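This part of the workshop introduces the protein records we will be handling. Getting from the letters to the C-alpha cells is the skill we practise here. An example says more than a description, so a record of this kind follows:
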Amino acid sequence: MEYMKNLPPHLQEKYKTFCVLPWIHLSTRPNGHLRVCCTANASSATKFGHSQHGGEVGILKNSDGKPANLNTTDLLTGWNNEYMKSARRNMLNNKIPPSCTKCFEEERNGHRSKRVWETQYWSKLVNIEEVISQTNKDGSVPPKLYYVDLRLGTKCNLKCIMCSPHDSSMWVSDWKKLYPKIKSAELKKIMVWDNQGKVDGATYNWHKDNPTFWQQLYDQIPHMKQLYFAGGESTIIQEHYNLLEECIKRGYAKNIELRYNSNGIEMPDKLFTLWKEFKRVRFHFSIDSIGIMNDYIRFPSKWIDIEKQLYRLDNTEPHIEVTIACAVQMLNMFYIPDFLKWKISKNYKKINPWPLGAGLINYHFVYHPTHLNVRVFPKEFKDKITAKYEDFYLWLKKNYRNDQEFLESGYGINRLKGMVRFMNSADWSNQLPEFKEYISKMDNIRGTNFKTTFPQMADLIN
C-alpha cells in the first residue's frame, strides 16, 4: 500500500488496515453528530455498510445506541466513545471497521482513498509509532486532537444538486417542493429529512450556544495542527471567524494549518487578513465541471463568478495552497476529461500546482444521494465513458505530460483509471428510475434543463 512506505517496516507488516485518523481526528456533521471522519458516513452506501448498519455507519453512538451529538455529548467524551475505541481496536487487529468499508472498496479498484492520502500526509507530521503506542487495551487514547473537522450548521449560499437540507439551508425550500411529489418509495427513502433534522437531540444550531464544546475545543488549540472547515459554507459563518481569532489570540495560529472545502462564492477581505497569521492554508475550491454544467450542479452559482474567484486565489500569498475539489458523480463523470482540458489550458500559477492532483484537479466520489453515484450508469453508457477516458489518456500523454513521474503518479492517469474501474466495479443501474424522477422533478422546481445542459446524457432520463 502506497502510504505504508512512510511507516517503519515493522508497522507496515503489522497494521494492514490502519488509518491514522481515529488516533488524531474527530469530525462533526452540521447537525452536531460526531463521526469517525468526513467520509465514514459514505460507507453506508456500500452493500455491506447499508445492509448491516442501518445507514448510520461512521456516526459515533452512545451506550443507548443513539448518535453522539454535540447537543447532548461533549467533545472529549466523543473522543473516547466506544465507537471510536472499537474502530481503533479493529485496526490494530487487522480488521476493517464498518465505518471504513468505503475506503477499502475504493482501494480495491485502484482509487486513492482518503485512508491512503490522509495517513501518508499525517505520517510526515506526527510520530505514528508513538501515537499507536499510547493506545490503551480498550482502544482509548489521550485527549490530544491534532485535527478537527468542523461543520458549523447548514448556513449556505448554494443548493447543489447532490446536496440536501441536511447540509445546506438553501435546500429547504426546494425540498419542501420536491418531497411531497416524489412517487418512488426508494427515492422517498433517500430524500427523507426526518423532523427537519431534529432527531435524537440534533439541531443545526448546536454550535450557537454550546460553551462546553467551545471551551474543550479551545483547550485543544495547543495540540492543533489542522482545522478543517466544510459545509454549510464556513466563509459566511461567524463562529468560523471566532475560532480563527481565538487561535491568533492564544498565540498558536503560526502552528496551525487551515483546510477548507468551500464553494468560494463569498470570500471577504477579513478572511485573507486572518489567513496571514496561520502556518498554511489549504483551500479546496469545490468545482465540478465547467460553464453551465457547473452552474447546474452547484446551483445557482454563475460560472463567471467562479472564474473571477479562481483568478483571485491564483494570486494569493505563497502559504495559501489552492486546489480544485471535484465531486465525481453521474452529472460530471463523462465530462471530466473536458474539465481537465480546460484546466490545463488556463495555465494557472497555483491552482493545483504539481504535484497536487498531478497538476490537474482533485477528486472524491458522491455516495449520497446514491442515485447520483457513478455506478448507477447503465452498462452501455459506462462503456461510452470508458472509451472516452481511454482516448483522453492518450491526449494527456501527447499534450500534457508523458514522463515517468506523471505516468506513475497516484493522482494522474492512474487516478482516472481508478475512477473508471470503480464505476465499472458494480451495477447499481436499478436506481436509474430514481435518477430519472429526481432530475425531472428538480428541473421543474428550478427551471433548469438537464437535456440541454448535458446533451450527451439526454437519453438517460427518457
